[in-house]
Amino acid sequence: MASSLPDLSASPEAGQHLLHEDKEYTTVKEGLAHILVPASGPAVPQATPKGENTPQSVFYNPIQQFNRDLSVLAIKAYGEELLERKQRSVERHKQKIAAKNKEKKRKREEEGLGDVSRKAGKLEGDGSPTEAKPTDDGDSVTKDAEPLPVGSEPNAPSITSTAAPDVFTAKTDADSSKHEDIPESPPSKFTFTILDALSATGLRALRYAQEIPFTTSVTANDLLPEATKTIEMNIKHNRLEDKIKAVTSNAMAHMYSLIGQDCRDEKGRPQPSLKYNVIDLDPYGTAAPFLDAAVQAVRDDGGLLCVTCTDAGVWASNGYPEKAYSLYGGTTIKGPHSHEGGLRLILNAIATSAARYGMAMEPLLSLSIDFYARVFVRIHKSPADVKFLAGKTMVVYNCDSGCGAWTTQTVGKNKLVEGKKGGYHWKHVYGQGPSASENCKHCGSRTHIAGPMYAGPIHDPEFIKRILDGLPEVSKDTYQTTSRIEGMLTLALEECIFIEEDPTSPTSTSKTGKWDPAALDPAPFHFIPSVLSKVIHCVTPIENSIRGALRGLGYLVTRSHTKPGSIKTNAPWDVIWEIMREWTRQKEPVKEGKLREKTPGYAIMGMGKPKDLEQNGGSATAATEEKIKVVFDEKLGAEKDKKKLVRYQLNPRENWGPMARAKGHA
Length: 666
Prior knowledge:
Layout: E1 17-20, E2 23-30, E3 33-38, H1 65-110, H2 165-168, E4 193-196, H3 203-211, E5 217-222, H4 225-237, E6 244-248, H5 251-256, E7 278-281, H6 288-297, E8 301-309, H7 312-315, H8 321-328, H9 338-355, E9 359-369, E10 372-381, H10 383-386, E11 393-398, E12 406-410, E13 412-418, E14 424-430, E15 448-454, H11 461-470, H12 482-494, H13 509-512, E16 526-527, H14 529-536, H15 543-552, E17 557-558, E18 567-569, H16 573-586, H17 600-604, H18 610-615, H19 622-627, H20 634-637
Parallel strand pairs: 4-5, 4-7, 5-6, 7-8
Antiparallel strand pairs: 1-2, 2-3, 8-10, 9-10, 11-12, 11-15, 13-14, 16-18, 17-18
């Protein structure tokens, strides 16, 4: 029976059975790629493999198809933008050459040379040009005494219009001479290289090669020879030997080997480099050990770094602050906003790794998904942008044991200074002293420090829009998670409403057309109304009521992609707690006896004496009550959702999750 099974040369199909080296395999299809898994294993991988699957010889987790679908679409969007920039650069180069040639022609006509080119040879003693040697079509080409463009050879043979008709000849309009003095250099070939640094089965590499049409080369690296053997088998079965190269190596050693392959020379001019356009880090656990090597192996002129960290129990919990600090350089934040804090810890780890080498990190998309984080960042060489990092790194004073409020404090400060001759420039100075006291000013409870972590915007709205704009055109059979991708990216795009531009800033996007390295996120975290209700022991307000109250006061409001029922706003905590107090006054009064003395809720509701509150680090609320008038307008707070998007994931199946680590020996 087994001998009658086809081998790897058979056309890949989902669910087919193959025989390779006396072993039977079953084909699993994801996207346009097919991978081979042992036929003895279950169709759906087990969270805790048993029997012949212990240990797992092939690591494949179908739950992370969302991650892989999103990665393909994100890299494709990034590559398309890169290709468009390349095309615009070529067009600008052509226009520049045409303008120079037009100016040279004008000067020749003013000097009375007419259509006779200066390339016709040296001038005679009386100022008349020597006779030019005619070519087959009548044009004259001789040696050029002027300096040649960079990269050309001074002794190169003359090029006639017959040999290269599009280089010197332009016959489209009357303003162009029969041959140009400066040739249009042919556009360099567009290359797009990807490194799948921790490839396992090679599924990501297969999908990138199959589904991103402009990909020229993919390197699938793994430490284990068994894994590399599996990758090579899958490459052969998918018939992608010309695009994918399997490498058995330590991922860090492989990436460190590219140090010195600078993308630009000492004068800032582009030069060939072996660095990758895209590096994808998708380890089992944390990606922290690979970050230093990755930022040096990705192209430093805007290369894309894709990072997955599946250790949410470290970066999004309150159980291992020492572990989080050792891996990501900061301690975690406790509370419902812990996943947002975790994303900022990961971004800060990448930013500080890049900054050591004069490179800046630009976040494009940062998501907390299921049990892992997935971030897409652009890396570019810019010592000037690196100077902003201290002013975009913050610590958080978090009232995690009391009312849940927080206060942020940047480590440095980016100060906008007006110049003596007008205009503004940035000055990088020390951050001021603590922005919060030892106790929470709202409830008097002790605060704890979280961070340092990234304080800037974690998404690029234009990048997200580009992915969303391409979703209607993709196949729903190939990308089976598009509904969830659309919902989550829409939430991420809504989080960008808080990004504001200072019209006096010389680095604003509207002035430079690029990412603003000085931008800060005015709403770094969210809150959940039900959590606040527990503090003051009241009935949880309707989300639309809270959103309507905040919008009625002129504040921006949206949701966070990290948690259902969350609210992100640029309103200060004084206003948020005053709205909650008004909720108890207008809608749902707190039952008598529910609040005990010396509790956070007792202080928040102002049931103690103002003097006592001030001694405990709290503050009276009378001033806030006089300033604002709260109206719980549910209609104003309603979120319009005509598409009925899948904004938050439901459990896809039972016993789903990270699965067990694949075993093997290097």
